[in-house]
């Protein structure tokens, strides 16, 4: 079994990316690509084999592969992204996953972005957001019950995805922006809250016993290290202009 990370290089069309909460700001493709390359190198350094998909010149948000699939130990679910411009992104991700997992798919009228799915052990919390609807949550419940997953929908209105508001930072700790999602919703976990001045700081990528974490949030970083969380720093400032964070640039699984 290898630890595999699916990634895809930044599209030259990223300047036309979807934006929901941010104003459009110029994105420098070269800087975005070098930050993305640094992200891939950190994954490799920490023991992940890269499965790099070919660049998609006409799909602006295709670097954010997380939104195209949820990979569990037993099965993978290919999503139906909420933004129509992003639906063609799933085809290449499905082909990449086919050798490793049985594939299920979210069907119309369901829509779901992977960024809305937070897995904590056998619990899957799914943000019901602008991108993910109740129909998709119902499909996930029906499809995954036989594998022993509990699926719970949670309203997300103040931010793009559930994982903009909360991520797992070690096996028993969540990092959460309590203004966007109620911490009490998650039972049996330790909670670290983001600094009130850093609303976008709740997204960290758990890689074994440490997290890859953006350099943009020094005050939340202090809270994390104070709570014993080990951090690998990464500058993702250019991709952040496209409303991307650290979880969205990879799909991680063993295969
Ligand atoms: C979008 O709006 O779909 C992209 N510009 C950003 C997606 C980021 N994905 C994620 O956080 N999982």
- Physical arrangement of strands within the biggest beta sheet: 2-1-15
CATH C-level category: Alpha Beta
Structural class: alpha/beta
Q: What spatial form do the alpha-carbon principal axes imply?
A: globular
Bound molecules: citrulline
Overall strand count: 15
Question: Summary?
Answer:
Strands 2-1-15 form a 3-stranded mixed β-sheet, with helices on both faces. Strands 3-4-5 form a 3-stranded mixed β-sheet, with helices on one face.
Structural account:
The chain has 255 residues and is α/β, with parallel strands linked by helices. 21% of the residues lie in helices and 26% in strands. It has a three-stranded mixed sheet with strand order 2-1-15, sandwiched between helices. The chain has a three-stranded mixed sheet with strand order 3-4-5, covered by helices on one side. The model has no long low-confidence stretch (mean pLDDT 98). Helix 5 (218-226) links the parallel strand 13 (210-214) and strand 14. The chain has one domain (3-254): L-arginine/glycine Amidinotransferase, Chain A (5-stranded Propeller). The site of citrulline has 16 residues, from loops. Citrulline (CIR) binds at residues 17-18, 20, 61, 64, 66-67, 83, 86, 115, 161, 242-245, 248.
